[in-house]
């Protein structure tokens, strides 16, 4: 994939190009490595779901929206 562009005026112009693979450089996948980390992550997820009870509904525009039973759940707050 290549992306480029130029900006400038009559007497000055600047151009830039970028080449690379097609991916989002800002996505970082974080996976628990050990069994203890996996167990902690599963327990954290269970607590969050028990407190927040997430539900998906469609608004009047037909867009899917999340609704939570407690405040702060959209930020991952457990307690």
Would you kindly provide a written description of the structure presented here, covering whatever features stand out?
It is a single chain. The chain has 79 residues and is an alpha+beta fold. It has a domain at 34-79. Helices cover 23% and strands 28% of the residues. The protein contains one helix and four strands. Strands 1-2 form a two-stranded antiparallel sheet. The protein has a two-stranded antiparallel sheet with strand order 3-4. Strand 3 and strand 4 form a beta hairpin. The longest helix has 18 residues, at 35-52. The protein is elongated. The protein starts with a strand and ends in a 12-residue tail after the last strand. The mean pLDDT is 88.
Radius of gyration: 22 Å
Q: How would you state the average pLDDT, rounded?
A: 88
Helix count, per DSSP? 1
Major beta sheet summary = 2 strands, antiparallel
Tell me roughly what share of residues is in helical segments: 10-25%
List segments where confidence is low: pLDDT < 50 over at least 5 consecutive residues.
Answer: none
| Secondary structural class | alpha+beta
Sequence of secondary-structure elements: EEHEE
Number of strands: 4
Q: Which shape, going by the Cα principal axes?
A: elongated
- Beta-sheet strand percentage? 25-35%
What is the spatial order of strands in the main beta sheet?
1-2
Distance between the termini: 44 Å
Keywords:
79 residues; alpha+beta; two-stranded antiparallel ribbon; 28% strand
